[in-house]
Design brief:
Elements (H helix, E strand, L loop, with lengths): L1 E5 L6 H10 L3 E6 L2 H9 L3 E4 L5 H9 L3 E4 L5 H4 L3 H19 L5 E6 L13 H10 L6 E6 L3 E3 L7 H12 L1 E5 L5 E6 H14 L4 E4 L3 E5 H12 L2 E5 L1 H7 L15 H7 L8 H7 L6
Parallel strand pairs: 1-2, 1-4, 2-3, 4-5, 5-6, 6-10, 7-9, 8-12
Antiparallel strand pairs: 9-11
Helix pairs in contact: 1-8, 3-5, 5-6, 9-12
Bound molecules: NADP nicotinamide-adenine-dinucleotide phosphate.
Length: 289
């Protein structure tokens, strides 16, 4: 298949593209800079210069492809307080691309957030984007929602949950968690997550909802204790109010995420093979940079 990938130069995209090429696909990666284009070509894909804000360019790329893997997201908008705006733009991207795929049976793979039936009126605006994608299933598009674990970990992870958490713990001299720290984060190694995307391109039926999580939910206290041990500091329980103040720039410490993967393993014949989150923490790279 000819696969058009947005976000091809990103953390997850740069793991997905080689998987797709290994599986025999021709991959075209969206690149908004010469640097991103060089990274895309270095993986053996074709670079298509463009931007997520250029909807006509995306429509044209979609017409030329058999499958679209949508991993691009304007994360810098989150840091600058424009989360709702960039998420609304993401929804426009979905409609621009999927609008070209109506009644073609071509595949569109985008970011899922758990079961679609739980997403109506969800507080996270990205749920609306997932619903928009799923809506094209009835319009002749092979939609697939891939729920990416909130902790996608590996040496390639430079700005995910763990690097942010380690930075705050190091600066504060304590590794905090909320209450008893029993809330959990879903985790998956970048390369296992990438494999799910590639398998889903090949064989997920229309309307599928799959996950790249290899660990459904790791207790945040367990993560805090590992980080504390590696940094030589204490793991400390905080009230929700203390945590809101302590983790100001990282308002995710108390979220409770579980992503069971049995159905995905069954559907795709996926066997995760890469290290667990605690093994990656023990490998040390999160603390040596
Ligand atoms: N990593 C995680 O732990 C995690 C967890 C849950 C969900 N997700 C979701 O998974 C998806 C991929 O995440 P990621 O970690 O791979 O993100 P990432 O490393 O930030 O990559 C984002 C990609 O989007 C591209 N991009 C951003 N703005 C663009 C624009 N205006 N025009 C064209 N391309 C643009 C970036 O290009 P440049 O290379 O030029 O910057 C990059 O290729 C995102 O939707 C993310 O929210 C990630």
């Amino acid at each position: 298949m000819r696969v058009f990938a947005t976000g091809a130069s990103g953390h997850i995209g740069s793991a997905v593209v080689p998987e797709l090429i290994r599986a025999g696909h021709d991959v075209v990666g969206l690149a908004r800079s010469d640097e991103a284009a060089a990274a895309v070509r270095a993986m053996g894909a074709e670079a298509r210069h463009g931007n997520l804000t250029d909807l006509d360019g995306l429509r044209e790329a979609a017409r030329d492809a058999d499958a679209i893997v949508h991993l691009g997201f304007q994360h810098e908008g989150i840091a600058s307080g424009r989360f709702a705006e960039v998420t609304a733009q993401d929804e426009e991207v979905v409609h621009a691309i999927c609008g070209e795929l109506v009644d073609t049976g071509k595949a569109f793979l985008g970011i899922g957030m758990g079961r679609v039936e739980d997403l109506v009126n969800h507080p996270n605006p990205r749920a609306k984007v997932a619903l928009a994608i799923h809506g094209y299933t009835q319009r002749g598009v092979r939609t697939v929602l891939v729920a990416v674990p909130n902790v996608t970990h590996s040496e390639r992870d430079r700005s995910g949950f763990i690097p942010q958490y380690v930075r705050i713990a190091r600066q504060a001299g304590v590794a905090g968690y909320v209450g008893d720290g029993a809330n959990t984060w879903a985790a998956g190694h970048t390369l296992d997550v990438a494999r799910v995307w590639a398998l889903a391109v090949a064989k997920a039926p229309a309307g599928s909802q799959v996950t790249g999580a290899t660990e459904a939910g790791v207790p945040v206290r367990t993560i805090a204790e590992s980080v504390a041990r590696h940094l030589g500091i204490e793991a400390v329980s905080m009230s929700a109010e203390q945590a809101a103040e302590h983790f100001k720039a990282f308002p995710f410490i108390g979220i409770d995420v579980r992503m069971p993967n049995e159905a995905t393993r069954e559907l795709l014949g996926w066997e995760p093979t890469h290290p667990t989150l605690l093994a990656d923490l023990d490998a040390g790279f999160y603390f040596s940079r």
